[in-house]
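cache lookup: miss for this entity combination. No prior model stored, computing from scratch. Input as submitted by user K.M.:
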Amino acid sequence: MARAVTTQRKALNTVAAWTVGLLIFFPILWTILTSFKTEATAIADPPVFLFFDWTTENYAAVMQRSDYAQFLWNSIFIAGGSTLLGLIVAIPAAWSMAFVPSPRTKDILLWMLSTKMLPAVGVLYPIYLLFIRLGLLDTKIGLTLVLMLINLPIIVWMLYTYFREIPGEILEAARMDGASLRDEILYVLTPMAVPGIASTLLLNFILAWNEAFWTLNLTAAKAAPLTAFIASYSSPEGLFYAKLSAASTMAIAPILIMGWFSQKQLVRGLTFGAVK
Amino acid sequence: MATQHARSAARLMLAPAVILLLGWMLVPLTMTLVFSFKKYLPLRGGDLGWVGFENYIRFVTSSAFWPSIWATLIIVGGVLVITIAFGIALALLLDQPMWGQGIVRILVIAPFFVMPTVSALVWKNMFMDPVNGLFAHLWQFFGAEPIQWLSQASLPSIIMIVSWQWLPFATLILLTAIQSLDSEQIEAAEMDGAPWRSRFIYIILPHLSRAITIVLLIQTIFLLGIFAEIFVTTQGSFGTRTLTYLIYQRVLESQNVGLGSAGGIYAVILANIIAIFLMRIVGKNLDA
């Protein structure tokens, strides 16, 4: 039985929830608004909210700093590359654990998760040294590899929980009909797993895009992604609010939109399936 | 049943992931362990030989150690209390019938997708700046003296920034858990005359206990390692030097790799203690 709710009560809930929601969203909204102001308006006293001369000059200015495109490309390359590489390694692993479980499967899964808990700062110097030796410091490839390894446990777990929901009988039927293992994965499993793979891809792209320990410490001028670009804006206070806002908006907009599509996967992915 | 062929194929397919993660875990960790027993100053002579447990003792007895533990505990604890308390309240609110629920959820979840460097900079400059920040304007509007947030109230400021980033995650998980609560149970209690407070304490809270534990553990793991928020705002000054940041400074700023590595091993041990609890809970879920 659905509970009867008075319209008044519903209106009250709506007002309360919208107030809290807008309050939480406000810093992002304020950043977006400020990005359309001139630098003078951005620090006006008292602050102006909506009624100012909207300008896109900050976006033009940020774009003109020729390096912005480079940072953006680095972010796309690193986040995309690490996610794709991770999927290539994780799909077979998750497949094998979901459909051919062994007594050790659970231990392997938990062990993988435990590598995720290794404090990054504890291994910063060794990685730094290895990167110098291997010529990977400040390269996109190096960072892609590190982010792939960091997110690999999450990718494997997410895929595993999705794959487990695919009925094994269908795969067996295909096998009976003489499908080879390769065909089975390519033509039977993959199409059924596409939604799960897509959400895994989405969430891991977001996590890699926002990662801000390795990206800040293993890059300099060449391979730095947007996280490092934005960090370089901690320059003189109060001078560049509008440009900082424009750069921030450009750095977060695509991820924000992707994130809104993947909120359900966020719960699933980050809790390793422990909350449904 | 899986055939022998399928089983060996499965093992082959699992191998790359296992080998990669094994390498990722063992190689750098072994190096850290080795460095931690050495006097190792890359810019002042390099590897100067074995020193036993000297680094471990020096790290713990340094005057910066206990303050860093306190800063870590206060930040992690503060963020946990705020995100869980507000997360429960917010999840209960969002679970109520209302207009535009989907949009409110999108608004609430948004901060989680903002990269840490952006949120730290936006808060630092546009909100907490003592001259041009919105808070300064707000304080002045009410005739109060603006606060120098990141120097006078550095820890609360950091807690505020980080809580803003993690509140969405806590809310989303708690909301997911609340939505799985059987509404008939609540209705039955309501009809039996149980007041709101008892319904909350005896039905809702126990139902949420698992979700709360998960939020607690996962956030703790991430919060122990927060870096960008401090790197961009205070650089560890004004009492915001956490254990992570202290180790970072020992390794990269003072270039004392031996000492930093000993600190790193402490951090690994700390993380493992927390991880064991998380594993238990997640492991239980695997059996279900």
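stored under new cache key. Residues 7-58 of chain A form one domain.
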